[in-house]
Amino acid sequence: MLSLAAIALVVAIGAASAAARPKPPVKVVVTEYEFGFRLSRQTVPAGRVTFVMRNVGALIHNFDLIGVKEGPFLVPGQSATMSTTLKRGEYIYVCSVKYHAAQGMQGTLYVQ
Questions:
Q1: How far is CA 29 from CA 18, 39, 54, 55, in A?
Q2: Domains of the chain and any CATH numbers
Q3: Which residue, 15, 29, 44, 47, is the most exposed by fewest CB within 10 angstroms?
């Protein structure tokens, strides 16, 4: 039979190893089209975020998280991913193809 001290040690070791494991990144699916974006979520927790981008439009587009990271330019039907670590705050995103942001390809991502 295990003593209370042994049980407490096993529980403490399990908790420490769980705390040591990093949380998996939050996934946000970004759909690009003429002339807008559809994000699977507009608010994410602070930490590692992976954006899964897909261009479903007829023109080239990209997902540019201003001041943080610019995603690749995608031709119609193409997909890509990009990961970054975000702190709390508001982040503006745009398509950086000339005139696309002005036509509606822009928005705000909220990080809590």
A1: 27, 6, 8, 11
A2: 24-111 (2.60.40.420)
A3: 15
